[in-house]
Amino acid sequence: MLTINSVKNGIVIDHIRAGYGMKIFNYLELNKAKYSVALIMNAVSEKLGRKDIIKIENNLELDFTVLGFIDPNITIDIIKDEKIYKKIKLKLPDKIENIIECKNPRCVTSVEKNIPHIFNLVDEKTGAYRCEYCDQIYENLSKYL
């Protein structure tokens, strides 16, 4: 049996879709951390079947927009004195900016380098986003991270 100690003060990123934990780990650059970090992959979950979990023994400033974009099912637990102080349920953000780039070669963002890459959510069920400039629609954009 695998044993990971509880977090005394820090953050637990829970209910990550199985296989996405490493994507979040890399995005947050936790490999450079000077504090304890645990990445648990393929843990058994009643709700999801399998899930990933990241435990961080430190309080970080997290961009919930990006994490919700990567996986809207994520739950963030803020831990103080080994107890859940605050629980945050994420969702797909209505708008994302400069997280990914539009791949349409005719988009103005392909020519002009100082224009922010902005996408708006058009379908929450499929996770489809539309480029604000060229109207190109992308589904499953988190694969571009």
From TrEMBL:
Q: Which UniProt keywords apply?
A: Metal-binding, Pyrimidine biosynthesis, Transferase, Zinc
- Gene name per UniProt: pyrI
Entry's Gene Ontology molecular function annotations: aspartate carbamoyltransferase activity; metal ion binding
Return the protein name. Answer: Aspartate carbamoyltransferase regulatory chain
The stretch of residues making up the signal peptide is none
Q: EC number(s) for this protein?
A: 2.1.3.2
Give an example GO cellular component term for this record. Answer: aspartate carbamoyltransferase complex
InterPro entries xref list: Asp_carbamoyltransf_reg_N, Asp_carbamoylTrfase_reg, Asp_carbamoyltrfase_reg_C, Asp_carbatrfase_reg_C_sf, Asp_carbatrfase_reg_N_sf
Occurrences of domain Aspartate carbamoyltransferase regulatory subunit N-terminal (ranges): 2-91
Record domain Aspartate carbamoyltransferase regulatory subunit C-terminal: where: 95-139
Stored Pfam families: PyrI, PyrI_C
Its GO biological process terms?
Answer: 'de novo' pyrimidine nucleobase biosynthetic process; pyrimidine nucleotide biosynthetic process
Q: Does the keyword Cell division apply?
A: no
Q: What class of enzyme is it?
A: transferase
| The keyword Metal-binding is assigned to this record | yes
